[in-house]
Amino acid sequence: MKLDTSGLESAAPVWAASNELADGFSAAPSFELPNTTDFDGFQKEAIQMVKPAKGTTTLAFIFKEGVMVAADSRASMGGYISSQSVKKIIEINPYMLGTMAGGAADCQFWHRNLGIKCRLHELANKRRISVTGASKLLANILYSYRGMGLSVGTMIAGWDETGPGLYYVDSEGGRLKGMRFSVGSGSPYAYGVLDNGYRYDMPVEEAAELARRAIYHATFRDGASGGVASVYHVGPNGWKKLSGDDVGELHYKYYPVMPSTVEQEMVEVAGA
Amino acid sequence: MARYDRAITVFSPDGHLFQVEYALEAVRKGNAAVGVRGTDIVVLGVEKKSTAKLQDSRTVRKIVNLDDHIALACAGLKADARVLINRARIECQSHRLTVEDPVTVEYITRFIAGLQQKYTQSGGVRPFGLSTLIVGFDPYTGVPSLYQTDPSGTFSAWKANATGRNSNSIREFLEKNYKETSGQETIKLAIRALLEVVESGGKNIEVAVMTKEHGLRQLDEAEIDAIAAEIEAEKAAAEAAKKAPPKET
Fold it and tell me: Which of A126, A169, A183, B219 is the most exposed place for a label (fewest CB within 10 A)?
């Protein structure tokens, strides 16, 4: 199978005027199909194999002071915890962050690729790319690989000329703009805490604590999430890492062990 | 020398690309076009050859929209212009699709100039025989811009410029008389510049004005005539003031 590098070129626009001269519009990416008797079944199996890998909890929300981004750091392969220290918040450039859920390699590679594209855009146009534009570039690339087994569930968070921006982009080619997102197997638990405690007018510390708590609660209940809860803040001057707390320690911080009063003491029985 | 005309991919011994220079000749024979940038407005004007009686003048539009906030006028081969304009319009929409943002004037100028350059470095094709004047507003900052491209594929930004027939005289006039203007003053300056080389009258020039709020607006004959009349009156007054001896008290 030849290595497919067309994803490294810019994604082709939907309509290209036909002309003799090569415009640098690449043809749709392709690779040879494997020889199987039942290709559709093989495809389904391949997708199923990758699915559980979205074992993670990531979340991001927009509030008055910018965007809060948080994630856990556990990587699991089925029931085996392969790492407790995965960096799931990827620094695309000094003012944009991406979160990782799904295939780690897919997320890392495509986020780095997005970083390259963003930098090239800056150099060509003498201005930073917007969060809208960056997320659209990524979404178009992922769409062109649709059905080929990429597993990416990411949020692009940043601050541009129009203010804070947050987009959810996935490997099905979907792209959503929103104020609050959580992605991964722990997301239902995180949503519960996040939706309950969210206010637009929070100060930064309160928002950070909300994000931290939401990750903690997700790691408490979801087996595929754990490790360290990292919290980042994206403000007008770029992103800054606020904290990275081990969720085990967070547990005892939130629910410290209280010496409880004993109702009945065990008394030593003397003799017979 | 004639041997270096054939395939444009060949340099002449003294470093010329003759096909490109011949294309510039074609531009010099085209209709005069002028562009002026004001603080809140940009104006394009082109010389209009008198329309034949039976010709439907609405189909001979020399100043066109590339997008809601960008317009283009050109001098040279009009058929080449049509091809270039279509490609530019597609690129404007394609940009909106891929980054959800309208193009900046600089971006689309770079695209058009890049296209013109490509045709100077490919086999079996000739360069586009036109120079363009591209005006518009930056979608976010609202700053107006005027750019010019030529058949060699170079481009640059201008406060005011002219291309096509007699462009040197128009440019000289603009260099002498340019000041930062806005609104009606900018329109007057553009028309004055064009009237230096074109017969006076609304039916010999086509003028279009672009503002941030209203986009591109073609001025109709009556308006142009009115402004031309104002200009004539101002000129006459200036002449009279010069002739009359200064009064001494």
Answer: A126
Contact (Cβ atoms closer than 8 angstroms) between residue B180 and residue B216? no
Catalytic residues of A: 56
**ipTM of the complex as predicted:** 0.74
With respect to residue B243, please indicate whether it lies within any of the assigned structural domains. no
Tracing tokens 């003053």 back to the chain, one arrives at B185
- Helix ranges, A145-186 (H): none
Tens-place pLDDT, residues A183-203: 999 999 999 999 999 999 999
Query: What residues are paired with B209 via a beta bridge?
Result: B43, B217
Q: Is the Cβ of A21 closer than 8 Å to some Cβ of chain B?
A: yes
What's chain B's length in residues? 249
In one letter, which amino acid is A133?
G
Number of domains in chain A: 1
Note whether residue A170 is domain-resident: yes
Within 8 A by CB and 6+ apart from A50, the residues are A102, A103, A149, A151
Tally the C-alpha atoms within 13 A of residue B145's C-alpha that lie toward its C-beta: 22
Domain contains A16: no
AA identity, residue B233: A
* CATH at residue A195: 3.60.20.10
Contacts of A124 in chain B (CB under 8 A): 110
Model confidence, pTM: 0.78
Residue A211 domain-assigned (yes or no): yes
User: What is the domain count for chain B?
Assistant: 1
User: Closest partner residue to A14 among B97, B101, B110, by Cβ?
Assistant: B97
Over its C-alpha atoms, chain A yields an Rg (Å, rounded) of 23
- Does residue B54 lie within any of the structural domains? no
Q: How far is CA B5 from the centre of its chain?
A: 28
Listed in sequence order, the DSSP H helices in A127-261 are 131-144, 187-197, 204-221, 247-254
In a domain, B114, yes or no: yes
| H-type alpha helices, chain A | 39-50, 104-125, 131-144, 187-197, 204-221, 247-254
Domain housing B38: 17-48+61-231
Chain B residues within 8 Å of chain A (Cβ atoms): 86-87, 90, 94, 97-101, 104, 106-107, 110, 118-119, 122, 125, 140
pLDDT tens digits, A129-160: 999 999 999 999 999 999 888 889 999 999 99
Give domain status of residue A48, yes or no.
no
Instruction: In whole angstroms, give the CA distance from residue A116 to residue A122.
Output: 10
On whether residue B241 sits in a domain, the answer given is no
Do residues A61 and A180 make contact, with C-beta atoms less than 8 angstroms apart? yes
Among candidates A113, A45, A93, which has minimal Cα distance to A239? Answer: A93
How far lies A124's CA from each of A118, A119, B20, B106, B110, in Å? 10, 9, 26, 10, 10
Which of B63, B148, B134, B69 is CA-nearest to residue B101? B69
CATH number of domain containing B69: 3.60.20.10
* A contact residues 185-214, partner B, Cβ 8 Å cutoff: none
